[in-house]
Design a protein that fits this description.
Blueprint: H1 4-8, H2 10-16, H3 20-40, H4 50-74, H5 96-113, H6 116-119, H7 121-144, H8 146-154
Helix pairs in contact: 3-5, 3-7, 4-5, 5-7, 7-8
Amino acid sequence: MLDLKNWLNPKHYNRLWNVGPPGLMFSLCLIYITHWIEMSFSMKKYELGPPWFYTLFFLVLAEAVLILIWVLFSLPPTKRGKSLSRQGVYAFMRHPIYTTIIFHLNVLFSLWWGSFLIIFLIPIQYLFWSKIIIREEEYLVGIFGEEYIDYMSNVSRFVPWK
């Protein structure tokens, strides 16, 4: 299963940083650039009354936090890369943290700035993350082999339905 010699290899640690942090930085930059374009061209924004704004913002934020906490209980950081979890949130989606970045982050910034344009980033970021996740999944197949291939065939990548 897990080759301890490769696990202790610094390449394993570096490999874990090839998708998540750069992808998050790209997503945040894309959101900021979109907001800047929207502000520069005085594009139309939407306004929500305070009750709607706070209700929607709280619900989206609460869902994002719930998913991230569920991730910690489903696969503690000390077990990542050492064991494959098929329980908890990982029974529904393979990449819950990236799902939170794609969907929740865009909606939160859209609500905060009243931006229509940021909502349209969701399909773009979905495609972007789908492409860069392939590297991580190839890496995970290398670690877990057939077990991960079976997991990929039964659980969707981002959304909890196929």
